[in-house]
Structure formats: C-alpha cells, structure tokens
UniProtKB/TrEMBL annotation:
UniProt feature coiled coil, ranges: none
Spans traversing the lipid bilayer: 5-20, 27-44, 56-76, 97-121, 141-160, 172-193, 406-434, 446-464, 484-517, 529-549, 569-589
Protein name: SLC13 family permease
Residue ranges constituting the RCK C-terminal domain according to the UniProt record: 205-290, 298-382
Membrane topology value: Multi-pass membrane protein
Alphabetized Gene3D superfamilies for the sequence: Regulator of K+ conductance, C-terminal domain
Matching InterPro entries: Cit_transptr-like_dom, DASS-Related_Transporters, Na/sul_symport_CS, RCK_C, RCK_C_sf
Organism: Halalkalibacter suaedae
Entry GO CC: plasma membrane
A Pfam family this chain is assigned to: TrkA_C
GO molecular function: monoatomic cation transmembrane transporter activity
Length: 591
C-alpha cells in the first residue's frame, strides 16, 4: 500500500464521518475533501474540475429545469386526484396512486414529484378520514421505484452514466435499467399493497398533532388599559427575549399582526398570542397590566385571518438552518414568518421555540403571509412548503407545451437520435423560447447544492481511481467474497452501496462505489455493466431510513412517522430489491 493510497482513503473516511455526523452541508463537506486532494497534489487542477464538465452532471442540471416546467404547469396534481379515486378501497387506491407516481418519476426528478403530491395526498386522505401515514411512505417509495426504470429517472443513474462515458463506454440506454427496475418495482408495489400496508402505521400527522395539543403550548394574554407597556414597542416592553415564550401574533380589532416586528407599538385591548413553555408564563405575570387568559380555548385556526396562513415546512439536508437555533437563524426576519411549533420523530419539541436547534426532517408549523410559499420555494432551506389549503390553477397552454417537450426529449434520447445531454439541452431551449418557463422561475428548480456535491464527488472518485485506492479496496473486497463467487461479489457491492446511500447521499454513494465496482469487474474479468447496474439500483433503492433519501425525508414529518417505521417497512423492501437486482444482473450480464 502506497502513501498516496493511505492518504486518499483517509480523506474519504474523514469525509464519510463528517457526512454521517452532518457537521456541515453535504456539498461543502465533499468540496473540502476535493480541495484537500487538490492542494495535496493527489489531483491535478484539470482532474479535480472534471466533475464540473461531466456530461451526466450537466444533464441533471438541464433536467431540473425540464421537470420544473412540468411541475409548475399544474397538470400533474389534477391527474393524481383522478388516479386516487374514491378511496372506498384504500389498498386499491394505494396501488392506483403508486402506478402513476412511478411512471412520472421514471422521467422527472423524484424530489419535486413528492413535494407536489404530499399536500394533495394529505388533503385527499383527510377528506376520506384515512390516515395519511398509510399513503405518504408509499408515495416516497413509488417515486424511488420509478427512478430505477430509466436513465433520467434519478440523478444517480446519470452520475453512473457520466462516469461510464468518461471511461470510453457507451453508458446506459434510456430503458436499460428497466431490465432490473421494472420487475423490482412491480414486486415492490405488490409488497406495499399487501404486507407493507399492514406494517404501515395509522398515525396522526404533524398538523393534527399540532392542532390537538395547541392548548399545551399556546397562551393568550390581554393588554389592559392601565398597563405600563401601552404605547411601548415589543422590544421596549421586554417581550422579545422572554425565557421560555415566543410572541407569534397580536390581534387588534379583529385583525392579526404576525410575525410581530420588534418596533410594533402595543395598545390597550391587544390580544398577544405566545407559544412555548407555558410553565414559564410567570414572566408575563410580573408585567403590570397584562392579564393571562387562563380559561381561553385558543385554536390554531384563529391564526389564519386575512393574509395570514398556517404553513408546514420540512427542513432539508441542504438547509442553512441546520444546527442553528430558530433565534440564531433570524427566522422571523429572513422569512417573514413566525414558528409556532416544531415536530420531530412524531413528537412536538417541548422547548422554547427560539432555543430549538433545527435538524433535517424537522416539520415547522408557521404563521406566514401569502408570499411565503413563493419566497420559500426560492430557497433550498425546505424540501417542501405545503400550505394547508388547495393550491394552484392549471395553465392548459403551458401544461401542453411542457408535456410535449418532455415527450419529444424522451423520444429523441430513446431512439438514439440525440444523446441524453443534447436532447435535454434542446428541451430547455424550447421551453425558454416558448415562454413555458422563464429564466427567473427556472432558477428555483435547479438544486445547485446537489450539482456541486455531484461535481465534487466525481473529483473524489477520480482520486480513488488514479491513486490506486479503488483497486486496493476492490482487491480486498474480492478476497472477502471469494468463497461466495460472483453472486457474493454482486451482493457485496449492492450492500455497501445501500449502506452508503442510507448514511450519506445517493449521489455520493454512486460516485464512491463506481471506481471500486469497476476495479472489481476488471479483477474478476467480468462485464462491468452488471456491477454498474447494481450500483445504480443500490444507490437509489433507499427504503429503510428517513434520512438517506430526499423523498423519505419529505414525508417523514408530514406523515407523522417515527424512524422505526422506515426500518420496519423498508428493510424487507431493501432485501427484495437486492434479491431481484443480483439475480437479474447475474443472468443477464454474467452468464
């Protein structure tokens, strides 16, 4: 083992530990690892930057825009409501929901699909008195199923495809992955409609939990005429930095102000609504002229007046809010929204709102103005921002244009008329020229953090390959699985890829496993396609944790799930996918 191999493996291990512990954003961690490899001389500048010119990565960037155009057209929501049906037979509705979601996810990025359909399915379930926890996890899984069907189904497939092109290979064809993905998806849906449905919990959503327990964390205080704080601002009255309470709204003459700015002047008769630890309400009792309405039965719905809305937001992996408290993030000023409560792992966090350090997957209940949805969608801080009321109107002209462009792109790439990159580029140009999507609106659909992570991870993958570290790891892996033969090697690659996907990210897992899988195929003198398909499927098939894959994280809070729910339902599904993948790849590409 050379010093270079030891150094590269050490950098990768430190990177993995940092990703697991979430010490910073994933893209920043991988970027730092790439920078270390570049500055140490392991990678030349040209090799370190190869990921930024990788065809697979650039194709992903273009497909974000295409998917965004279809998403904002509003047509898919309408189709979903038709697919769900009456709901008289929930299991049938579940399958009817999973089929179109998988089909859409085969050609569109699965993250925006789950973002779109989460509020639609929740409302459908609420109207029929069905627990959304029976449908939201299957929604995420259906999107993952679809991602394994085509080249463009998920960014992971395109990452592996881009690496194959760099090695001088042809890469995946449009439907090559469906050889494995289609049988696995069919069995996966059958599992979710039978055994999986029984294992799924029937649980209250975060929204319902917030509503039912509102009396535990909301309090109402009346400003009396003789109060010493009348005429003072919130800051001057000492209401901004209370120990355990957080002022979220003020009602005056039937009108609501919230979030409440520090300079807002108080008047006699104002009703102040606080959230937080009611055990600390003694702070307010010490202020003369404030009367605590102990018998009041204040409901969350009262916060929705005029332009105010109750909104749920799920904190994303890429969020700048992660590891910051609500107060440190200056949430109120940044989003013009007040945090009413925070839900994590099916429980409301019983702390002062301002002191809660946010984590990926946290569901925030917010009081926000109408423009919050627009402002929220322009940031990567939230995976989903779902208003608790019916969204949007379908633009028929834009819907038709977006769908026709998508279909044309798929046909051009499928029949080899153009490469996937060129077809996607032509589709984006068409969408811009027809004004189906504007340059400004397209920016909110491009996940720049994901692209940076992929580009940097490719550089790290190149370092593994060129330093000999990938060959070294592959050699030991081959020795370890020697007794189990080729099937043992494929199982080993699949399991390691799946573990990486569950603890870091799917794209980083694919990038790290590609050079190792390639080296293993060369050492065993086998067709590397079997190993590449195994890596692509293994990196996408993330079912057993809510944190390993974006779509699982999106439904985690809104579905009222616990971490153990994903383990219970997902591990059998992971094993099912592994058996199907290894069996088919062995018989199609090895024998």
């Amino acid at each position: 083992m050379t010093i270079e191999i030891v150094f590269v493996i050490s950098v990768v291990l430190v990177m993995l530990v940092c990703l697991i512990k979430e010490v910073a954003r994933p893209a920043f961690i991988v970027f730092c690892a790439l920078a270390v490899l570049l500055l140490s001389g392991i990678l030349s500048p040209s090799n370190a930057l190869r990921g930024f010119a990788n065809e697979g990565m650039l194709t992903i960037a273009l497909l974000f825009i295409v998917a965004g155009a279809v998403q904002q057209s509003g047509m898919l929501n309408h189709l979903m409501m038709k697919a769900l049906g009456s709901g008289k037979n929930p299991r049938r509705s579940l399958i009817q929901m999973m089929l179109p979601v998988s089909s859409m996810s085969a050609f569109l990025n699965n993250t925006p699909i789950v973002v779109m359909f989460t509020p639609v399915i929740r409302k459908w379930c609420k109207d029929r008195n069905i627990s959304p926890s029976k449908f939201l996890m299957p929604l995420s899984y259906a999107a993952i199923f679809g991602g394994t069907l085509t080249l463009i189904g998920t960014s992971t497939n395109l990452v592996v495809h881009g690496f194959m092109l760099e090695q001088g290979m042809e890469g995946f064809s449009m439907f090559q992955l469906a050889i494995v993905g289609l049988p696995a998806s069919i069995l996966g849906m059958l599992y979710m409609g039978t055994i999986g449905y029984k294992l799924l919990p029937s649980r209250k959503t975060a929204e319902e939990s917030f509503n039912e327990s509102s009396r535990e964390y909301l309090s109402e205080v009346l400003v009396e005429a003789n109060s010493a704080i009348v005429g003072k601002s919130i800051e001057e009255a000492g209401l901004r930095n209370l120990q355990g309470l957080y002022l979220i709204a003020i009602f005056r003459n039937g009108e609501r102000t919230g979030p409440v700015p520090s300079y807002h002047k108080l008047k006699a008769g104002d009703r102040l609504i606080f959230t937080g630890l009611l055990s600390t309400i003694v702070e307010l009792q010490n202020i003369k002229g404030l009367r605590i309405e102990t018998g009041a039965d204040f409901k969350l719905e009262e916060l929705q007046t005029g332009s105010a809305h109750l909104v749920e937001a799920v904190v994303s992996h890429q969020s700048s809010l992660v590891n910051l408290t609500v107060k440190e993030s200056k949430f109120r000023n940044k989003y013009d929204a007040g945090v009413v409560a925070v839900h994590r792992n099916d429980e409301r966090i019983h702390n002062k709102i301002g002191d809660i350090a946010l984590k990926p997957g946290d569901t925030l209940l917010l009081v926000a103005n109408k423009d919050f949805i627009t402002r929220g969608s322009l940031t990567r801080d939230f995976y989903v921002v779902s208003a608790l009321e019916e969204p949007g109107i379908v633009d028929t002209k834009k819907s038709t244009m977006a769908m026709c462009t998508l279909i044309a792109m798929i046909i051009l790439a499928s029949f080899g008329i153009m490469s996937m990159f060129k077809a996607a580029l032509l589709a984006v140009i068409t969408l811009f020229l027809t004004k189906t999507i504007t340059f400004e609106s397209s920016k909110k659909h491009v996940q720049f953090d994901v692209l940076l992570l992929i580009a940097c991870a490719i550089g790290v993958g190149i370092a593994l390959d060129q330093s000999g570290a990938a060959t070294f790891i592959a050699d030991h892996f081959v020795q370890l699985t020697k007794g189990a033969g080729v099937i043992g090697a494929l199982i080993g690659v699949y399991l390691l890829t799946t573990v990486f996907t569950e603890i870091i990210t799917n794209n980083a897992a694919a990038v790290l496993m590609f050079p190792i899988a390639f080296a293993m195929a060369n050492q065993l003198s086998l067709d590397p396609m079997a190993f590449f398909v195994t890596v692509a499927i293994g990196a996408s098939a993330s079912f057993s944790t809510p944190i390993g894959y974006q779509t699982n994280l999106i439904v985690y809070g809104p579905g009222g799930y616990r971490f153990s729910d994903f383990i219970k339902v997902g591990i059998p599904l992971n094993l099912l996918y592994m058996i199907v993948t290894v069996t088919i790849t062995y018989f199609v590409w090895i024998i």
